[in-house]
Amino acid sequence: xxxxxxxxxxxxxxxxxxxxxxxxxxxxxxxxxxxxxxxxxxxxxxxxxxxxxxxxxxxxxxxxxxxxxxxxxxxxxxxxxxxxxxxxxxxxxxxxxxxxxxxxxxxxxxxxxxxxxxxxxxxxxxxxxxxxxxxxxxxxxxxxxxxxxxxxxxxxxxxxxxxxxxxxxxxxxxxxxxxxxxx
Amino acid sequence: xxxxxxxxxxxxxxxxxxxxxxxxxxxxxxxxxxxxxxxxxxxxxxxxxxxxxxxxxxxxxxxxxxxxxxxxxxxxxxxxxxxxxxxxxxxxxxxxxxxxxxxxx
Lengths: 183, 105
Description:
Number of strands of chain B: 0
Distance between the termini of chain B: 37 Å
Number of helices of chain A: 7
Number of helices of chain B: 6
Oligomer: heterodimer
Radius of gyration of chain B: 16 Å
Structural class of chain A: mainly alpha
Shape of chain B: globular
Structural class of chain B: mainly alpha
């Protein structure tokens, strides 16, 4: 059945697109999640952001989500998505957006950098949907963390229970530590 | 005298909690379910309560909101026992997401 063109549904699509753009979605995300044409999305993007959307492909490696800091952020986001899915009954892009807002809130409250951008979060959801990634429980804390689907994880210990030796010890962190000591 | 004052404070905390819960639910139901740690059904009941019902429920000698951190590890993480405070909060949030919610039986 061909979808009838309705002004109301188009307005909703534009509304959704604007919200996505404000969250930092790239053009590919907009094309996948709204029914608006590429030209309209381009114009919308320029109007909202005041600049052209970044060109090029989206990041496409699942490995990024398994490195130490991204893994923690990705796991946090995934667990929020899981919670909303299970207990609040929201799904699809709405779920991703709500979970991402809650994630941003958490990050801002704890003075962390939002390592996971919206487009990354959206890609992460796609990897889960296509079963390239899954979560595995940590044997020490029972938290669930993002992991490859096809890898074996016997006695898995998460990056928070057993952080790698240099994890989080960046130059920036050292500076912040020195400043708080001086103050 | 002392216990009367305590009861009054409990009532106030209950009322504040219920009003905040209602505001959260009306603003964004899904986010409220996450923030409050309650089930959809409980959220529905809370949302539908009238002001006079709220007052009646709040006037109790027990608190209405439960302590959610009954897991020793989560509590330690939140208090900041670990080395890195901000990562501790993220760890706690990851663990909290799998905790059961308050639901109707």
